[in-house]
Design goal:
- This protein is mainly α.
- It is 29% helix and 0% strand.
- The chain contains 2 helices and no strands.
- The longest helix is centred in the last third of the chain and has 24 residues.
- It is extended, with a radius of gyration of 18 Å.
- The relative contact order is 0.20.
């Protein structure tokens, strides 16, 4: 696979600490729903995706563009955007089919994560603050 912005040079190795259960001992709940322990952060093998976003390691986005810059897309850029949109639609459709009673959000997250990586995409909310 080739292409993808930010894919120049060697891709970084990602080592993200696992999530910890939030400390909310004194929180007053309304109703019977309680938070569940979070599963460990899912890891992405950089060789499986086209590009790793700048926030993948520490969760802090670095790139800041001007809202006034108009970027002219090439025909190749437009083809890549169409492919990205198609992949996003497929993953959203998968998530929608899984969303039903008895299926946990963790199960949906695992399926969406796997489906994103299968399509060469980095799961965008992973480690984003």
């Amino acid at each position: 696979k080739t292409g993808g912005g930010g894919g120049f040079g060697k891709k970084p190795t990602i080592n993200i600490k696992t999530k910890k259960k939030p400390k909310i001992d004194n929180f007053t709940y309304a109703g019977s729903i309680r938070p569940h322990a979070q599963s460990p952060t899912r890891i992405v093998d950089p060789s499986k995706v086209l590009a790793i976003p700048d926030y993948a390691i520490d969760g802090i986005p670095k790139k800041r563009g001007s809202t006034y810059d108009i970027e002219i897309k090439t025909p190749e850029d437009i083809l890549k955007m169409r492919a990205a949109g198609r992949a996003a639609r497929e993953v959203l459709d998968l998530a929608g089919k899984l969303a039903k009673a008895g299926v946990t959000t963790d199960e949906i997250d695992a399926a969406v994560h796997a489906a994103s990586v299968e399509r060469g995409a980095y799961p965008s909310p992973l480690n984003y603050r």
